[in-house]
Amino acid sequence: MAAAEAQAQKTGGIGKDVAVYVCLLVLAGIQFVIAYQDISASQMFVRMLSVALIEGGLALLFFMDLSENRGLMWFVLIFTVAVILGMQYGWTDSFRLIDGVPWAK
Amino acid sequence: MSQADLSIHGQVSRTSATENMTAPTFSVPAKKMAMWLFIIADSATFAGCLVAYGFTRNATPDWPRPFHSITNVAAMTLILLTSSLTMLLGIRSAQRADKPGAFRWTMITAVLGVLFAVLHLREWMGMISEGATLFHNPWGTPLFSSLFFSITGLHLLHVTGGVIALIAVGVRYQGGRYKADDLEITGLYWHFVDLVWMFVVPFVYLMNLSH
Fold this sequence. Notes:
The structure holds 2 protein chains of 2 kinds. By secondary structure, chain A is mainly α. Chain A is built from 5 helices and no strands. Chain A folds into 2 domains: 68 residues; 37 residues, no CATH class. Chain B is mainly alpha-helical. In chain B, helix 2 runs antiparallel to helix 5.
């Protein structure tokens, strides 16, 4: 019954799709506004990343229909986030290169 | 569970075990699951590229900020986001068994993909004419150009592949060889390409905007 309702909703109106599309446009616009703010690179990075994560989440949940399958959503999120977090181990070395080596500025 | 129980319920247990082995994972058809696994792997590829870019940018003093205008990249973003909506409209039409509608929206998506690629190449040509290549950067460290062309090139390669896939699957769907599910799976890939662009634009373009 629930599956039939979900299918009916899926094949029904496109109001939700258009609303998500407009949200994504607005969020992309916010990124362009942030680009012109007079802030430090680290502040800009945090703001850009936050907006990009919201955009990505909206696209995953509603355009790629992950919100309709909770099991798959957790599977995708856990594996992807774990791998991406694992890549962050080298950042300290990036700071060492700019501050800690003899030829650093 | 005793041995007797096992022998009594042996047939039932074997049946349920077989059902478990053949049941689709997360109730997702195998083809769709394969696309999700590809998307997970490919997101690691792009994340690796962006992390390498961030590492290099952070560790390089006087990182160049060569972009003066956002017009082109804004147009590219608008086109790619709109193409995701047209892809969705195509999928929704296919789910309603509206074959001509699904085919039309899929082809519109492919045309938007081509337009995106053309604007991307125009952007590249502008940078190349200013002297930026994979191994040379007129604004400072050569690492900027090599990372810029590598990351945006990898994304452009995905867009090109996506356009080819959209045309191939759309035509075969129209001809009756493929079903709505196949169009939906291609759509998943197209949305992923769009999703990656949401991260490439702020970090590769907007954070390198000259003020």
